[in-house]
Amino acid sequence: MSLLPEQTSIVTVDFRLPTDFRAPAGGVNETVVSVKVANSTSAINIKDWRHSSIFDVGWKFSFPHHYSDVGVKYQINVQMFHEQQPLLVELDYFVIVNTAPHRQTLHLSPIGFLYVEVQAPQAIAEHEAVTISLHDVGHPEMELARVMHDEQTATSFYLQYDPGSVIAGKRYELSGIENRYHQSIPVTPWHVELAPVAHQSSSRLSLWISHYLQKPLRLFTDAGGKIR
User: Fold this and answer.
1) Average pLDDT over residues 107-119
2) Confidence check: pLDDT of 222 > 60
3) pLDDT at residue 153, rounded to an integer
4) Residues 119-128: pLDDT tens digits?
5) What HEC string does the chain produce?
6) How confident is the model at residue 213 (pLDDT cuts 50, 70, 90)?
């Protein structure tokens, strides 16, 4: 990949949120965005951005595009925190840029709202239905949510689910089926972790270190044969 010799071009991402989402008021808030080049032997960091607020409407985010002779796949990680608790589902977002300036819309998934994209077979008539299900991996009968759409409205939408029924750290699966002929339909994201794991082990380690450092420090030179 060659660096652009002159002015750096810009990639602009329009982050969107569901209209029913409301950001918590007050408290300590933070939004964090990280951009890396994904299609390289090792990830190349492009931009890290932090802002002491959170959003309940869409906002624009830009980062530089340094390459001129090859398509670049960027991996974007975005998270919003309220009182150190994440508000968004953990997902990787990808933007492929061949020429810049480039602009693209990304739909973020707050906890309780999962943005779903469906690739329906062309054979489905507009009035015929597809069913989208969010369930345990490998167990479609254990559903968190199920919706039915016609071919037109199933292209992309927010699927709502009850966050209280989600187990932290567990992965769930999306599946789609065309109702008339029972054909499987590709749905993204396929597997998704809907709630973060509480890092209790890290917290316990921090407490142990803190407790240990409060004790008198015993150096190896306290032994009988000291180094002089």
Assistant:
1) 92
2) no
3) 62
4) 755 556 655 6
5) CCECCCCCEEEEEEEECCCCCCCCCCCCEEEEEEEEECCCCCCEEEEEEEECCCCCCCEEEEEEECECCCCEEEEEEEEEEECCEECECECCEEEEECCCCEEEEEECCECCEEEEEECCCCCCCCCCEEEEEEEECCEEEEEEEEEEEECCCCCEEEEECCHHHCCCCCEEEEEEEECCCCEEECEECCEEECCCCCCHHHHHHHHHHHHHHCCCCCCHHHCCCCCC
6) very low
Closest by Cα among 159, 166, 164 to 195: 166
Tokens of 115: 């943005």
Give CA–CA dist 119/223, Å, rounded. 70
Percent of the chain exceeding pLDDT 70 equals 76
pLDDT at 194 over 60: yes
pLDDT at 183 over 60: yes
* CA–CA distance, 209 with 56 (Å, rounded to integer): 38
Q: Which token pair is 95? A: 């933007």
Q: Considering Cα of 84, then 16, then 145, then 93, what sign does the dihedral take?
A: negative
Identify whether the C-beta of residue 182 lies closer than 8 Å to the C-beta of residue 140: no
pTM across the whole model: 0.77
pLDDT the model gives residue 200: 42
Report d(CA 78, CA 112) in Å as an integer. 16
The answer to whether 189 and 94 have CB atoms below 8 angstroms apart is no
CA distances to 38, 92, 99, 151 from 63, in Å: 15, 17, 14, 35
